[in-house]
Design goal:
Elements: E1 2-5, H1 11-20, E2 24-28, H2 38-45, E3 53-58, H3 63-73, E4 77-80, E5 96-101, H4 105-111, E6 118-122, E7 149-152, H5 161-168, E8 172-175, E9 180-181, E10 184-185, H6 187-198
Parallel strand pairs: 1-2, 1-8, 2-3, 3-4, 4-5, 5-6, 6-7, 7-8
Antiparallel strand pairs: 9-10
Helix pairs in contact: 1-6
Length: 200
């Protein structure tokens, strides 16, 4: 099982995640309590192993701004977490992960309009587009077949990630607030989350 630790803002947390077996790290460039400046992200990315996916998270951002940050930071994937249309998810230099908030079956139907290979299914948006620590109804995904690579997010924790994987059978699980304590990345929770996800 592949694991993405999102909302990375410091080198120590990045190293802990990588050493614990994370496959991808997420850097949030949109307005968020985990927002990071491009120059900060670049400093972290420069010391990461080549094989780790470095995902930039953007919300309704100008494509030229995204591409500028991609090239200045050394990102390897782009996550679009806003209301981007299918057309607005095309034409980038890197693979696109399109995120969707899930509240009903129709939300799954809407994902079929998008041609991107990666779909991230998250809880419905709250104060921010993601990272709200709320899980959606995983049973929405039963009997749902897609040729997309499904990334499961929203309210995942070290305690529930095994169950989430068993129910939804995703390509990857993605966590942010679920491995934090008092709003900061908790290194022990990161290790536990990755261990439990990989062991599922």
């Amino acid at each position: 099982m592949k694991v993405k630790i999102c909302g990375i803002t410091d080198v120590d947390s990045a190293h802990v995640a990588v050493q614990a077996g994370a496959d991808a790290l997420g850097f949030v460039f949109a307005k968020s309590k985990r927002q990071i400046r491009p120059e900060q992200a670049k400093q972290i990315i420069e010391v990461l192993p080549k094989e780790i996916e470095k995902v930039g998270v953007f919300v309704n951002e100008d494509p030229q701004v995204i591409e500028s940050i991609v090239h200045s930071c050394g990102l390897t994937m782009i996550q679009l977490h806003g209301e981007e249309s299918p057309d607005q998810c095309q034409g980038y230099s890197l693979p696109i992960i399109k995120a969707f908030g899930m509240s009903e079956k129709q939300d799954l139907v809407n994902t079929q309009l998008y041609l991107n290979d990666y779909l991230l299914l998250d809880s419905p948006k709250g104060a921010y587009q993601g990272g709200n620590g709320v899980r959606f109804d995983w049973s929405l995904l039963t009997k749902w077949n897609s040729n997309k690579k499904l990334i499961l997010a929203g309210g995942l924790t070290p305690e529930n990630v095994r169950e989430a994987i068993e129910v939804t059978q995703p390509y990857m699980v993605d966590v942010s607030s679920g491995v934090e304590t008092d709003g900061k990345k908790d290194h022990e929770k990161i290790k536990a989350f990755i261990q439990n996800a990989k062991g599922a």
